[in-house]
């Protein structure tokens, strides 16, 4: 298997190779030449410019964070610290219907667009302009960008509390086509949110015709993750089926105590749909979610923490009920005084989280919010938490299966060519970690903390993390749609 003895760039010795396919790990060597994996196997006697002793460590494909809101974080040569320190080498952006492009804003972004940044972040009239900026000053990880339905609505409609008119759908379709042609890998909706809630299924289906023609993927933050979760699944299956596009259900959950346990029925529906169409899903490993502060979601939660507030920047990480008590007002009045704001909502059951994470089609996506002052710990902890807490400690699944959910499965689902596996010819995106110590350290109280156990991370053959420390190199690339 030694193809170019003596001229490898990097050689990992005696690693436990977990290759991303789900098959059992095996001890071996892995060599890089340039930005590619050149050889895998017994490479004793081979030489390289840099040798890395991987004895006792796992070498896996770099993790693909399929659900991020890193659209603005990635700009300007970003170190992407919350991601590389978890072993993430690729982020999928543009989720939940919101992407920075194509949109130029002349006012403060309305929620939930404000999750991605302020008015100054919305400055790309064309999706190609956004990608050009990433190309010019690449971040430390690869970016696989999607375009958001809500962004297209804001770009083309004067009022958003109604269905789009035919001329507006035409305008959105044109922007969508331009974005996919420029390289966006998919299209997302966030039908739960006020700016998109008035969009009927038909509006989505008309836009999905463009997604189908250009062979992109469709992800959705569904209209309802509560009482109507099954109905929303059916709406999503129906739209994707009629448009003939691959579907991904974002951050699947059953929200609100009266809906706990419903994942038995939702996963059954997903299995049924998977018999006749392409359906995937992602999840994060926590019983709490996080997004903008909204009264409707507060009602579904047992506890709410404030992550940021524009009128009250001094409030971060505090319990909403404590704030209301301190201000001697109702919860509703406190919300009114805090918005625009963000929150962490405890609204899922551990049993549902485990059942959903354990489903063979479930990928891992952090849904981390990088601009929050007191972010949900998923931003810094998601991947090590799945590997350490759920795979090693609780044995919800094997380490190999955990890695597959973060690498091979998302690369196939999102059509990321030559990524997600340890195999000769693939891109040299890898993570080296200690399976016995890997753990999330970020908590709801102290959320900004580097995970334990990640030794080294390479992106396109270059180090992003070495000896557990972030390196200055920025070797990420834009992963454009492949036709
Ligand atoms: Zn979402």
TrEMBL record:
Keywords: Hydrolase. Its EC number is 3.5.1.-. Residues 52-244, 336-462 form the Amidohydrolase domain. It is an enzyme of class 3 (hydrolase). SUPFAM superfamilies: Composite domain of metallo-dependent hydrolases, Metallo-dependent hydrolases. GO terms for molecular function: hydrolase activity. InterPro entries: Amidohydro_3, D-aminoacylase_insert_dom_sf, Metal-dep_hydrolase_composite, Metal_Hydrolase, Metallo-dep_Hydrolases_sf. It comes from the Bacteria. PANTHER family: COLLAPSIN RESPONSE MEDIATOR PROTEIN (PTHR11647:SF1), HYDRANTOINASE/DIHYDROPYRIMIDINASE FAMILY MEMBER (PTHR11647). This is D-aminoacylase. It comes from Mesorhizobium shangrilense.
């Amino acid at each position: 298997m030694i193809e170019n003895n003596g001229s490898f760039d990097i050689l990992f010795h005696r690693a436990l190779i977990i290759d991303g396919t789900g098959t059992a790990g095996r001890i071996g060597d892995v060599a890089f030449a340039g930005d590619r994996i050149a050889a895998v196997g017994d490479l004793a006697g081979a030489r390289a410019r840099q040798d890395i002793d991987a004895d006792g460590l796992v070498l896996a494909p770099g993790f693909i964070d399929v659900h991020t809101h890193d659209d603005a974080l990635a700009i300007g040569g970003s170190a992407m610290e919350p991601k590389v320190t978890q072993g993430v080498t690729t982020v999928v952006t543009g989720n939940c219907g919101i992407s920075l492009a194509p949109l130029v804003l002349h006012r403060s972004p309305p929620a939930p667009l404000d999750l991605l940044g302020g008015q100054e972040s919305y400055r790309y009239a064309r999706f190609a302009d956004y990608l050009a900026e990433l190309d010019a000053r690449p971040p430390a990880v690869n970016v696989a960008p999607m375009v958001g339905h809500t962004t297209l609505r804001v770009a083309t409609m004067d009022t958003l509390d109604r269905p789009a008119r035919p001329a507006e759908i035409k305008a959105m379709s044109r922007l969508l086509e331009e974005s996919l042609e420029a390289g966006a890998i998919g299209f997302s909706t966030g039908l739960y949110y006020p700016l998109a809630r008035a969009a009927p299924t038909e509006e989505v289906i008309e836009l999905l015709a463009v997604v189908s023609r250009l062979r992109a993927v469709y992800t959705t933050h569904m209209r309802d993750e509560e009482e109507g979760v099954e109905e929303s699944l059916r709406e999503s299956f129906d739209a994707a089926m009629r448009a003939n596009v691959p579907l991904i259900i974002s951050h699947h959950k059953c929200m609100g105590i009266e809906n706990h346990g419903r994942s038995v029925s939702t996963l059954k529906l997903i299995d049924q749909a998977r018999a006749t169409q392409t359906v995937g899903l992602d999840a994060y490993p926590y019983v709490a979610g996080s997004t903008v502060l909204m009264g409707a979601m507060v009602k579904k939660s047992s506890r709410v923490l404030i992550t940021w507030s524009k009128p009250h920047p001094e409030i971060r990480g505090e319990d909403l009920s404590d704030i209301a008590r301190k201000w001697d007002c109702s919860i509703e009045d406190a919300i009114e005084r805090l918005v625009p704001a963000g929150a962490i909502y405890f609204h899922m059951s551990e049993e549902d989280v485990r059942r959903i994470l354990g489903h063979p089609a479930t990928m891992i996506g952090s849904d981390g919010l990088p601009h929050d002052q007191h972010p949900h710990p998923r931003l810094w902890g998601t991947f090590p938490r799945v590997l350490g807490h759920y795979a090693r400690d609780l044995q919800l699944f094997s380490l190999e299966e955990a890695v597959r959910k973060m690498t091979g499965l998302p690369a196939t689902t999102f059509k990321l060519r030559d990524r997600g596996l340890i195999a000769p010819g693939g891109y040299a995106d890898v993570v080296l970690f200690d399976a016995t110590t890997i753990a999330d350290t970020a908590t709801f109280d102290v959320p900004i903390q580097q995970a334990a156990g990640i030794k080294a991370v390479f992106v396109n053959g270059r180090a992003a993390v070495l000896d557990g420390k972030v390196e200055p190199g920025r070797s990420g690339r834009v992963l454009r749609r492949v036709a």
